[in-house]
Amino acid sequence: MTLEFNEASHSYTLDGKKVRGVTGLIADGTPKDALIWWSATKAGEWAAENKHRLGTMADESIIRTARMQHNRHKEEAGITGTAVHDLAEYLHEHGEVQTDNELHASYIEGYAEFLDRWQISPLLFEHVGANRTHWYAGKFDLICTSPYLAGGAPVQIDLKTSKSVYGETAMQTAAYSEFEFYVDWFGSEQPMPELKATYVAHVTPTHRAGEAARYGDAPLGTNLYPLSLTPRQMKEHFDMFLHAAATAKGKPKRDRLIKEPLALPDTTAAIAA
After folding, report:
1. What does the alpha-carbon distance between residue 114 and residue 149 come to, in Å, rounded to a whole number?
2. Where along the chain do its domains lie?
3. Is the pTM of this model over 0.90?
4. What is the mean pLDDT of residues 14-19?
5. Partners of 137 in the beta sheet?
6. Which of 34, 115, 164, 261 lies at a 20 to 30 A Cα distance from 59?
7. Which of these CATH numbers, 3.90.320, 3.30.110, 3.30.460, 2.40.128, describes 20-33+79-252?
């Protein structure tokens, strides 16, 4: 297989060479000011919850623990997101799915209802693909049809279990739509279908309890948001992705722009002259 995906490291190899993933390129090439505030908030929340024992901790330990809180929350959310994606994949393949995890069941029940209500017919799901021309790879969630979307033509839907949905997903889905191939279940390269639109499905629990409370006032269940409603819009969003990718890929070169400081001028030679 010419394209390989390492699930553990979430990395790709194309034609024997490392290739950057779509989400990583967008993350490194797009400002995320909200994440700075979110990270600071998580550090502050931890300090407030543990103020009774801060006096017993060394300063370095407080700083080290506080600054890692955002990673802990991100990892916990990632575990839930991965579980929901796995359940959705099983549902697409088998038509039904069960789980003993009450929280995960709350996600997937709403997602199954969404599929029924929109009469979603999956065509492809959870396939890796790549673009050799612009040298990137990734994995799309779902390509499907619905009589209510794009006149029944193939469309792409990305699944998000994050607290909200964001505009960067338009770049993400556009990049997937420009794959020069995807890898089928037999490991062979196949051309991407022609897509007419892209959407993001915000998959949230059907009730607010425990971890689900982090969604606040977000609508219950799964809700569909439009991203690109025409091929022209997809091209515009792909151009945005290419700009972000260029910024991300250019970081090593930018890091090399600063050299050693210049030596002080020899003032004695100037005076002698």
Report:
1. 13
2. 20-33+79-252
3. no
4. 96
5. 21, 130
6. 34
7. 3.90.320
